[in-house]
Amino acid sequence: MARNKLPTTVYLTEEQYQLLKQLHNRTKVPMAEYIREGVDLIIRKYRKELPGQQLNLVEEEEKS
Predict the structure, then answer these.
(1) Cα–Cα distance between 20 and 9 in angstroms, integer?
(2) What's the pLDDT at 59?
(3) CB 31 within 8 A of CB 24
(4) CA–CA gap between residue 43 and residue 38 (Å, rounded)
(5) The model scores a pTM over 0.85
(6) What's the rounded Cα separation, in Å, for the pair 8 and 6?
(7) Confidence at residue 38, expressed as pLDDT on a 0 to 100 scale
(8) Extents of the domains making up the chain
(9) Any idea of the CA torsion for 37, 42, 47, 50, to the nearest 10 degrees?
């Protein structure tokens, strides 16, 4: 299922940027995809901190 993506600004350290760029160069996976995957990992890790309705959205995403 294609999802709309919203633009945002993320500031990385020089080291983070260089390592992410190297990963992209080797795998050809867009850097933005790795950033989204990292955000998903953090959301899952801290999902209990989310309000009830938001928690349900995270759980639905995990099922699909």
Answers:
(1) 16
(2) 58
(3) yes
(4) 9
(5) no
(6) 7
(7) 97
(8) 31-64
(9) -100
Residue found by looking up tokens 């959301």 in the block: 43
SS (H, E, C) 25-50: HHHCCCHHHHHHHHHHHHHHHCHHHC
Closest CA to 34 of 58, 48, 17: 17
Write out the chain's pLDDT in tens, 64 residues. 457 899 999 999 999 999 999 999 999 999 999 999 999 999 889 888 887 755 555 556 666 6
- The pair of structure tokens assigned to 30 is 């867009």
Nearest alpha carbon to residue 34 among 58, 56, 10, 57: 10
Q: What pLDDT does residue 49 have?
A: 83
